[in-house]
């Protein structure tokens, strides 16, 4: 807050408070705050946000709102000031504010202490928040202050001691929490509510119409909680009494939120890879800090008892019974009550797939911890329960739609597509296979459908197992289906730009595929070509994503050649666009490995004959069509490409948008400098080039920061395209036409400018990477005025720039001087109505008959003096790079300068 106060005259400062569920409305308020006062009075908003999960969505919504309001600006609309409280922080590019003063800060605090002592005398000894800072967060100071609560009676504790305990527990485990003053008075029954000798430990402050009460500092709250626990007033006792005395009748939403965080919010912790000590990741704790502390200091059953009280007290909230069910099956290994509470959680929110997941996890863990001598019948009974629960979860996940978080006060449904049900199913199948096969090898043939179950019942030793026939028969096909889903899910996307999926996800999926699918073809595959499909299944490529995922796997060149040969045979025997596409991509895959090919790709002509593709074809097919037909500067295929982009995005929406809606789409291919299929460059090829010059790799960071595109070898491999940024959209300029493409780094779109970039392709369509402002040599030229609009794309009005010399002089008395705005990269921005004007900085003069906006920058002469146009000239003044962003300039006067625009 101090930063906001210090910057209040520079920016329009604001804090995002309350629910962040309505991102669209928040974006509108931010843009309105920026634009308040109209043109010429706009100013950047500095927005304090304490939830880093909403930043990407909020950024996109703000950009859409700016475009909708047609705001053109050369300054940032908003700066996100993201401050998130964490107990464990990975080393990153974030600024970490720790509880420690610098020498300079310590000196200033000491000076302030003397000033306060002169003004307030001994009273300043009770300014605990300040004193804790001034003593550099001294634990000794905190312990000295908190001694006042000793001794603490275990029985018949005065109400004031109870209130200190409640506030301490709440503030120690939920930073920023509070109680209302009237809630505290209700505790005293409005009788004797004097808090001495503890009154200096508690503060009351006004927030709107409410009077709020909390401990003076979170360190004091933590110390009081610890001292009371040492005196026998345990955390669990305080928590239960808190729920009993302060959560009676109807609990206000703010207090329910605090209790929910205290009992169910899982903090992030740092986890080190036991195999690779340099690999460190973040993962959530098993339970909330309070529950973990109670478990450590008081025992597991006591932790469960606190969650049980909360589950009964808040009888409509699903999160407390969910946490209780998790505690029973994870810590206590008691599966009957775990199942009971998981079902109660599900009853309270029957449409929430994430709540439903808990029941499946209970049964899965029960199965996992069964003794090795358990009978097959028991294994299959438990597996049936787990599979039914996960299939129910999968069905609920299919129905959870929406781009924003949905909130009704108690239940949050994530915008994330929940794939846990499908993954849980595969984990159960792994357990079933391991436990059954370990008892009898015959199960291996039964589970892969190599033999019918009914024909080997005697070998299995139990005729009653036949009742599980339907379950057993469904496993192999369901495993193949779910592995196909994850093949695309993991090949095409990742959780976000800076985070990868955990390695166990890949391992468990691959293991399940090997156990159930690898050694047996599906029964329906009996036609010619079945042998090839069988071999492809063994390489996990019998899907539309198959060839595209091969480069992410560890396949040898010989294996890839075999896959390519197999797809070639299939494409010859099946009249299928997918088969053609897979063969061509397999061929491209080999070319990216620099393999020696026996012949050229034979299916290109056949594929081109099937164009234009219908929107019913897969996004992979449309991507291949785009890669083949993307125009170079001497090709005029803009209208066809625009239609292909439109079809690909529609196909993506139909095929993958629901499943990948919250995930970051990974680039699959890039346009290179070569010709034909050789110009299609796979992501892994770029990583290989980058790897040669860099020993330590952090691929998530290399891609998210676009560091990889700064490598010279990568740059030499890729084709650089030109374009322009207009209204938060990137328009590629190819062959005299404009094509709208997405940008990988959305923060590259805030300023109107001419740019260059590399073109990549995700499964949704073309995306620009490595966006950079073009050099002055290639700045706005006559080419821009000749850009013709493409079908179904948005274009900017083009203006032909005419250059010429003039000997006439302008009368300075007729000019209106204007002061330009200047941004952090020294771009000067000017706006004017019709008239004659002069810039007060550069003496640049212009005449316009309508409202006009333009920018300019001072450039270096060095690169231009080598050009033939400048050969006979010497430098005689500054060089200006001028860009008109809206309107028209009739005359532009540059005294003693020359114009070298083309």
From TrEMBL:
Which of UniProt's keywords are assigned here? Cytoplasm
- Does Cytoplasm show up as a keyword for this record? yes
Q: What is its main location?
A: cytoplasm
GO CC annotation: cytosol
Domain FIIND intervals? 806-902
One Pfam family, short name please? FIIND
PROSITE patterns in the record: FIIND
Q: Which InterPro entries match?
A: FIIND_dom
Subcellular localization, as worded in the UniProt entry: Cytoplasm, Cytosol
Official protein name in the record? FIIND domain-containing protein
Organism whose genome encodes this protein = Sparus aurata
């Amino acid at each position: 807050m101090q930063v906001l106060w210090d910057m209040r005259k520079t920016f329009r400062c604001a804090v995002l408070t309350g629910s962040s569920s309505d991102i669209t409305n928040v974006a509108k308020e931010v843009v309105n705050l920026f634009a308040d006062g109209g043109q010429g009075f706009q100013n950047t908003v500095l927005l304090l946000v304490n939830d880093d999960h909403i930043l990407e969505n909020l950024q996109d919504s703000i950009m859409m709102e700016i475009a909708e309001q047609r705001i053109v600006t050369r300054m940032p609309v908003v700066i996100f000031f993201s401050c998130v409280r964490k107990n464990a922080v990975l080393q990153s590019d974030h600024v970490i504010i720790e509880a420690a003063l610098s020498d300079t800060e310590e000196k200033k605090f000491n000076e302030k202490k003397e000033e306060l002592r002169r003004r307030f005398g001994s009273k300043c000894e009770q300014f605990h928040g300040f004193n804790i800072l001034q003593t550099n967060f001294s634990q000794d100071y905190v312990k000295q202050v908190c001694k006042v609560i000793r001794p603490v009676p275990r029985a018949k504790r005065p109400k004031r001691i109870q209130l200190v305990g409640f506030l301490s527990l709440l503030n120690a485990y939920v930073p920023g929490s509070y109680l209302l003053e009237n809630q505290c008075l209700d505790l005293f029954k409005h009788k004797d509510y004097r808090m001495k000798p503890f009154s200096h430990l508690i503060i009351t402050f006004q927030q709107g119409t409410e009077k709020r009460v909390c401990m003076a500092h979170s360190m004091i709250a933590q110390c009081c909680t610890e001292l009371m626990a040492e005196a026998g007033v345990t955390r669990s006792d305080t928590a239960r009494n808190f729920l009993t005395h302060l959560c009676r009748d109807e609990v206000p939403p703010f207090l329910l939120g605090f209790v929910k965080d205290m009992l169910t919010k899982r903090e992030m912790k740092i986890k080190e890879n036991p195999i690779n000590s340099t690999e460190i990741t973040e993962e959530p704790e098993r339970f909330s800090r309070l529950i973990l502390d109670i478990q450590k200091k008081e025992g597991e059953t006591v932790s469960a008892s606190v969650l049980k009280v909360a589950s009964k007290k808040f009888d409509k909230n699903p999160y407390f019974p969910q946490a209780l069910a998790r505690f029973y099956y994870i810590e206590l290994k008691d599966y009957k009550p775990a199942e009971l509470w998981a079902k109660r959680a599900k009853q309270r929110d029957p449409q929430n797939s994430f709540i439903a997941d808990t029941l499946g996890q209970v049964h899965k863990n029960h199965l996992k911890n069964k003794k090795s001598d358990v009978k097959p019948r028991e294994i299959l009974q438990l597996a049936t329960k787990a599979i039914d629960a996960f299939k129910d979860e999968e069905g609920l996940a299919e129905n959870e739609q929406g781009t924003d978080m949905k909130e009704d006060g108690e239940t949050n449904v994530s915008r994330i597509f929940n794939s846990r049900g499908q993954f849980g199913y595969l984990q159960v199948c792994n357990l079933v296979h391991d436990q059954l096969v370990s008892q009898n090898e015959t199960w291996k043939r039964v589970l892969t459908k190599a033999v019918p179950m009914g024909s080997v019942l005697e070998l299995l030793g139990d005729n009653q197992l036949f009742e599980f026939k339907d379950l057993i028969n469904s496993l192999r096909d369901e495993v193949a289906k779910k592995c196909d889903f994850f093949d695309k899910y993991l090949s095409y996307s990742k959780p976000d730009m800076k985070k990868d999926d955990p390695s166990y996800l890949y391992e468990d999926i691959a293991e399940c595929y090997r156990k159930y699918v690898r050694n047996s073809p599906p029964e329906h595959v009996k036609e010619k070509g079945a042998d090839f499909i069988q071999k492809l299944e063994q390489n996990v490529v019998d899907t539309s994503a198959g060839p595209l995922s091969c480069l992410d796997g560890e396949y040898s060149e010989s294996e890839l050649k075999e896959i390519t040969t197999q797809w070639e045979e299939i494409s010859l025997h099946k009249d299928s666009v997918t088969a053609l596409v897979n063969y061509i991509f397999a061929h491209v895959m080999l070319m990216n490995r620099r393999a020696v090919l026996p012949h050229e790709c034979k299916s290109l002509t056949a594929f081109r004959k099937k164009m234009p593709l219908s929107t019913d074809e897969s996004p992979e097919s449309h991507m291949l069509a785009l890669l083949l037909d993307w125009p170079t500067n001497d090709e005029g295929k803009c209208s066809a490409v625009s239609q292909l982009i439109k079809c690909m995005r529609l196909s993506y929406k139909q095929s993958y948008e629901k499943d990948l809606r919250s995930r970051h789409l990974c680039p699959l291919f890039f346009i290179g400098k070569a010709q034909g299929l050789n110009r299609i460059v796979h992501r892994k090829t770029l990583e290989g080039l980058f790897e040669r010059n860099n020993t330590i790799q952090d691929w998530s960071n290399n891609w998210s920061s676009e560091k990889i595109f700064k490598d010279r070898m990568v740059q030499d491999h890729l084709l650089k395209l030109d374009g322009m940024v207009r209204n938060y959209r990137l328009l590629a300029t190819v062959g005299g036409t404009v094509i709208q493409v997405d940008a990988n780094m959305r923060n590259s779109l805030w300023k109107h400018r001419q740019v260059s970039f590399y073109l990549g392709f995700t499964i949704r369509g073309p995306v620009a990477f490595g966006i950079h402002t073009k050099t002055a040599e290639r700045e706005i030229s006559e080419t821009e005025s000749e850009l013709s609009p493409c079908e179904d794309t948005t274009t900017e009005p083009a203006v032909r720039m005419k250059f010429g010399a003039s000997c006439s002089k302008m009368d300075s008395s007729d000019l209106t001087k204007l002061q330009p705005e200047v941004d952090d990269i020294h771009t000067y921005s000017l706006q004017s109505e019709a008239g004659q004007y002069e810039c007060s900085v550069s003496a640049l003069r212009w005449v316009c008959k309508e409202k006009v906006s333009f920018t300019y920058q001072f450039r270096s002469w060095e690169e231009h003096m080598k050009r033939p146009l400048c050969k006979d000239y010497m430098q005689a003044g500054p060089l200006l790079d001028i860009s008109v962003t809206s309107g028209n300039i009739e005359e532009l006067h540059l005294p003693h300068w020359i114009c070298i625009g083309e």
